[in-house]
Predict the structure.
Amino acid sequence: MTVEMLGARIMAPYFGGSISVWGSLITVFMLALSVGYLIGGRLSTRNPNPKTFALFFIGAAISSIPIIIFADAIMRPIFLIIEDPRYGSLFASIFLYFIPTSILGMISPYSVRLMVDSHEHSGHMAGLLFFVSTIGSAGGTLATSFYFVLWFDVNQILGGAVAVLLLAGCVILLINYLLQKRAAHAQVSRYEKQT
Amino acid sequence: MKNKLRLLLLLCGLMAVTQTLIAAEVIHEEKSLYRDINVVQTGNRRCLIFNVHRGDRNQTCLDVSNRDELIFSYTKMSFAGLLLTPQPKKILIAGLGGGTLPLAFNDLFPDAQIDVVEVDQAVVNVAKEFFFFEEDANMSVAVNDARVFVKRAGILGEKYDYIILDAFGGDYIPEHLLTQEFLEEVKQIMTKDAVLVANTFSTSRFYDHESVTYQRVFGEFFNFKLPASGNRMIITQLDPLPPRGNLITRAQSLAPSLEKYGVPLLEYPARLSTRVDWDMSRRVLTDQYAPANLLQNN
């Protein structure tokens, strides 16, 4: 949501601040998320593991970097080719935001699969996840639009979001590594006891 | 003697009552994509009001019995640019409002080409229906965002010699029309002898940021304020600013032609100041940093 709030700001120099720019942005975010949900759900059926889960975060972070570095290089040709700012902003949104947003969309269904261990709990877990992710979205929206834009440059905020995603990915990898190590230890000691 | 005074007071009271009795009549109400538009008529005075519930100010007022005369001082102040560029041939006006300003320019310079940019189609419709605005061979309106229009004009190599920035959104000027990058783009479409007239507010903390930004792009500019008005016009050009003596001579030769619009041009040269009355340490507004509407409230 932080990226979405800034998305309009990033596109305004080329496509203006009209309502159609917001329309393009929200449309592309919704489409990207829906594709992400679909792919994330599909991936979760094949050997779900925390490593892939962490890669989603890292992938989203890396694919967000072009928004910081190449935004102008991406928007300028689109501005030159497409005269109508409605379609201009639609295409710019696709090129800038589709990939990172769809990767972020994969996280929710995949984490449902990782956290659910039984059928009875699946609804509860899904509810909890939607709760957390939507609260997070609300927080990101509020913090960005009320405060971050007052304190930082747009690119600094985006850089912060990338850093947070990378950090999340690394923390998951680390926890996974530690858990595996402990599990291995436990197995070894169990094996030792048996013998 | 006392009776006379009482009578006078009574008369005054009566006048006040009748004044309020000439009720403001809403003759048009419309919700556009961007704002609530109201057209209100009080006696002969017809006004365009945006977002009436938030107590916004009138955008444009018009005396229907004397359509030439401009009512708001900020509209009249937009003519001060003539002191720098007295014979504009190609004029760009960002922000239509009721359209009285472009109409007056069209009337004053019938041969000049006037392009108006307005983001809201509903405003264009209301200007045409209620404020006698008309497009003609020399004056046309583009329904577009001013930033987009200016950027494209720059790419196409179009140049203007009189540019008025008067685009206001919900709270204030939209953020992407306040940044250093935007002003650089405006600079690209100015002829060598062009003048830029930007309508801004003279109050709020935001004043400093705005002044610093204009200064960064254009160097010294004329700060034009009138005591009775909350508006501040930034008037500048690409070349160094002319001395005050030149302004006075120009005002004297131009003033008669502006009389019918009610523009007191002769008073203006003394009000154009280059004195820095803002905090120079404020941050320049850029596309990266322009939280204008947040700063407004601080």
Notes: Residues 2-169 of chain A form one domain.
